[in-house]
What does this fold into?
Amino acid sequence: MAGWVPLPLSTSSECSAVQLTLVGVGPGNPELLTVAAVRALEAADVIAHPIAHEGAEGMALAIASRWLRPDQRCLPLLFPMVAEAEPRIAAWRAAADALVDEVRAGKRVVLLCEGDVSLFATGSYVQLALRRRHPDVPFALIPGIPSVCAAAAAAVEGSHDIPLAFQQEGLLIRPCPDTEAEFTALLDSARRTSTVLGLLKVGQRWSWVRAALEQAGLLDQALFAQRVGWPDQWVAPARAVPDDLKPYFSLLLVRQIWPEVLP
Ligand SMILES: C[S@@+](CC[C@H](N)C(=O)[O-])C[C@H]1O[C@@H](n2cnc3c(N)ncnc32)[C@H](O)[C@@H]1O
It folds into this structure.
């Protein structure tokens, strides 16, 4: 088909100038990598991937592992999960430098990112660090399927339909608020502005989030999605999720409004 440009880190020789690609690997299921992502993995010599502590495997690497070969070298990059700025800045800079060292040594390098590469992603900090510290080194981004989109699709397996947005509706993807008051205000504002919510990082907040949803009469309009795309995926209306659950990797979709005209 005429007109399509191959994505930068394909095996095409026209594109060989870009040796470094930040690749979104989707939410969990290795089948949800894009064709471009798989091609970038196949072409890479070095597979860089985030880890939260020394010795950890890393989710992005686990997702991509089906597409990797034994001759490819893995490069774990440590991104500590701390609130302080200094260690985080140091980690982003060190990651950018380590990636560029590999490129300068003639390697083709990918950095794996869970979900999409630009959505609440460590990869975005690395992107900015690369631009500031190594402006002469070109790199590319390959988007991945975001967890919110994967959750809406997975909902259908349980016969739950929660399209993310119709026509003039809004879609707000953001972390779950930290307090019940903020959460309730967000629900109100989303209803008034015809906005569907995709709330990430529900985690430890679940017990009061569930109570607030119940108070607002929204237990059946909210979809809870845990570890979408993984073998232990759980996607269910909020009503079915007990309040003492401490979900690890979970999000919430809340649709309070529907178009007037529907099939
Ligand atoms: C740092 S953000 C990464 C978002 C990711 N870049 C994306 O595109 O979806 C991590 C949060 O995304 C959500 N998340 C990511 N993957 C998920 C999955 N497979 N199932 C459920 N929630 C997921 C959770 O709310 C988690 O706390």
The domain at 148-254 is CATH 3.30.950.10 (Methyltransferase, Cobalt-precorrin-4 Transmethylase; Domain 2). The beta strands are 20-24, 46-51, 73-78, 109-113, 139-142, 170-175, 195-200, 222-226, 234-237, 250-254.
